[in-house]
Structure formats: C-alpha cells, structure tokens
Design brief:
Blueprint: H1 2-18, H2 48-65, E1 70-75, E2 80-85, H3 93-107, H4 112-119, E3 138-143, E4 146-154, H5 158-170
Antiparallel strand pairs: 1-2, 1-4, 3-4
C-alpha cells in the first residue's frame, strides 16, 4: 500500500513538472514588427466643405441602393463636423455612425480591422480597448498622407455600412 502511494506521488509530481514543459505554439502577439502599424500622422481637421462632400457621396450611394443610413464625419481630433440621418434610418444608428468614425480616427484604421480581430482571429482583448467598435463602417479620411478625419455609416448590415462609407471616403483626396 505504501509503495502504491509513493508511486502515485512520484507520478503526480512528474506530471506536474512535465506538463508545463510541453511545447506551446508561439503566440502571434509576441511578434515584434519592425515598423509601427497604422502609423499615419494626423493632419489639419477636415473642412466643412470636404466633410459635406464625403457625406453627400455616401448618401448618394446609399440612396441609389435603397439603404437608409446615418452618416457622420469627424475631424482629425475626433470632433463631429457633419451628420445626416436619411429618412427612415434607425435611431440607434445615430450614435453608432459617430462611434464608428471616432474609432476610425482615434485608432487610425478602418473599424473592419477590429471586427476581423475579434471574429476571425479570436483576439478578444480588443474588446477591452476604449472606444473600439468592432463593426465595419468606420473609415479614416486621408489627404496628402495625413488623417484629416473619418467617416462613419450605420443603419444597414456591416457590409452595407462599409460600402456607403467607402463611397464617401473616395471623394476625399
């Protein structure tokens, strides 16, 4: 009996010590890139005329497709410059459109990247970051290699929101 207990104790200790030494796959988040990702400098704030042009192009695209959208354009500091709610667009999407634009300008990337990080890559830590929205439809507006603002669209599916935003972003050069 004593020998059995000793054998169990030795086996248990061996398993405890050997368990952690099993090779773990490398964590992709441990990779250190040579360059800073999304390192686009901020520029002067977008003008009202440019913001309205982006919004008009986005609304034209949504209207052509029969989509009811909320469209927000923020400046490079994350401040609202222009907003429109198309007739019949859902009320919840008013704040969502602005939130998408704010996340795009603050993090200097499309909000689709956050969606992919969580949905495709299982990077759940992204949900702990302030002001993130993991839904496509927020796109930075870049002029001369600098972020002048962002456009956010909401009211349809994520892919509809993204198409609408891309139409607005395309007119800003």
């Amino acid at each position: 009996m004593r020998t059995s207990m000793l054998a169990i104790a030795v086996l248990s200790t061996t398993l405890l010590v050997a368990g952690p030494s099993v090779a773990q796959p490398p964590n992709p988040l441990d990779a250190v890139p040579d360059k800073m990702p999304f390192d686009v400098p901020y520029g002067a704030p977008i003008s009202l005329d440019h913001a309205e042009a982006a919004m008009a192009a986005a609304i034209a695209e949504a209207g052509k497709r029969g989509w009811k959208m909320n469209v927000a354009v923020l400046d490079s500091g994350g401040n609202l410059v222009a907003f429109k709610r198309m007739d019949g667009a859902q009320l919840a999407s008013i704040e969502i459109a602005e939130h998408k634009a704010r996340a795009a300008v603050k993090y200097r990337r499309e909000t689709k990247i956050f969606e992919n990080a969580i949905q495709l890559n299982q990077l759940h830590y992204v949900t702990t970051l302030d002001d993130v929205i993991a839904s496509r439809g927020g796109i930075p507006l870049i002029v001369g290699g600098k972020i002048v603002g962002a456009i956010g669209c909401s009211g349809g599916t994520g892919s509809q929101d993204e198409v609408t935003c891309k139409a607005g972003a395309a007119v800003i050069k």
